[in-house]
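Researcher: Structure for this, please.
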Amino acid sequence: MGHQRRLGTLARYWLAAHVALLMCALPLWIRLSSLPALLRNMAACAKPREDRNTLELDEAVAIVARVCQWRVFHSRPFPGSCLRQSLALFRVLAQMGYPVTIHFGVQTNGPAFLGHSWVTLNGRALAEPWSPRTYTTVYSYPLSLGRG
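Model: Predicted structure, token format:
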């Protein structure tokens, strides 16, 4: 039991470090490629789901969301919080083998447009404090066709 607990703790720290490194590379990746190319490259690292990871989905989502909110990533070179979190979730969960989809949407607020991005797995929004249904989806990138 202690060995399993140590492996679980190590996996959590490894994931947090992986997400932190991903966040550091994100500003450069965004500048060097178009959004479709960036998403295609992120999805290319996907593994089949049969390869079970030590961490479960909810725990992985919570770790990614927590790291994306670190104060250092709120500074100028980094993208806004929803884009930062969506790209990280998309990449990490695709690497874990989940058939995730990333969505980009807009909402009108008087004369202004508000943008938002989010990730879904089987139609369920992940790590969202409110429902993104109030946004009109303008672009989605599915990892596998037919999954939402």
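Researcher: Any notable elements?
Model: The two ends are 37 Å apart (CA to CA). The longest helix spans residues 2-32.
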